[in-house]
Amino acid sequence: MNREQVETNLPILPPPKEKVTFFQWLKDNLFSSWYNTLFTIALSILLFSIIKGTLTWIFIDADWSIVTSNFKILMSGQYPAVQLWRVWLCIVLLASLLGFSSGIWNGTITHLSIFLGSLLFISGILPFVSLETRIWTFIGLAILIVGHFIGKKIPIKKTILIGWFLLFPIAIFFINGFGVLPKVGTNLWGGFLLTILLATVAIVCSFPIGVLLALGRRSKLPTIKYFCIFYIEFIRGIPLITILFVSSIMLPLFLGQGVELNNILRAMIGLTLFNAAYLAENVRGGLQAIPRGQYEASHALGLSSPLMTCFIILPQALRSVIPAMVGQFIAIFKDTTLVTIIGIIDILGMAKNVAQNPQFLGQQMEVFLFVAVVFFLFCYALSYTSRRIEKSLGVGER
Questions:
Q1: Among residues 364, 366, 209, 183, which one has the least CA distance to residue 276?
Q2: Do 181 and 170 contact (CB within 8 A), yes or no?
Q3: Residue 178 backbone dihedrals phi, psi, to 5 degrees
Q4: What's the pLDDT score for residue 32?
């Protein structure tokens, strides 16, 4: 093979891309023609007027006294002020776990710890919060930072994993008391504290139920298969508000006499059952996306069906449906506001009650904007975490 033949067999590389300056990009994309220029100018004027009016209202015209005066009620409802240390203790425990985890594993968990640390810092410097709140926020922030550096030096992975598994039951124990601590009834739970509890219970409890329903729908046993199909299709065909009404009014009738469930527990059951049906369909979509060769390879290795499902099939299925599952988690987090219709006062219900106070008439926009910002921050945190996990796992890449 001579030199000319060798040169003809070499791959043809694309020419290097020229660096585009900022002004060149503006010219190519926004001012490429006379009508594009007019549209850009008109849209810029419209956006400027909207942004200017919004910022002027937020920082000059708006009266935020409705939020500053009722900040505690919006966040924790009627939870006794002398017992709020229990809620703060749970937040500090969460901050410590995030701090240690960010030092051990880095990556996505570090971004979550930065998010929580920013919230704690902002809460601590607000001028209208109490001294106790300011002390607890800076304690949580300090533990978060110290835990990050300790996690880098000391190998405590197993302890931190156990802490994450125990975080939710420990938090429920401290918030309720269960007779060991002074009991705080669920009728005093409210505000954003109740929203977080409802969403967390619905997500944590519905996930294993949804996975079992998805596996049961693909079962070869007719009884299990058709029961799962009926449950999923029946629940998905009913609005969530109907599920909440049924769980609030009709659920005690099925439990019989002597068994009493408070309204919040009934709402948690309704949200869990509703969310499980949608998660089941998300997981089933992931199971159907697994190539047949994965099943054949697992059987060739001598794995039983339970082992194949737990260690080969299910991890791949869950990995492929992370966006859909997180989207459902965000949806159920926002749908918790529907509990106001059955008499449970979450942060939105508390905002409605505060706005009806004659002292704050005409300030509805301020309090509802505050609620919207709170929901946006936490929903965006979930969405951002999902994207980071997808990127780290290579979802959608080959």
A1: 209
A2: no
A3: 50, 35
A4: 83
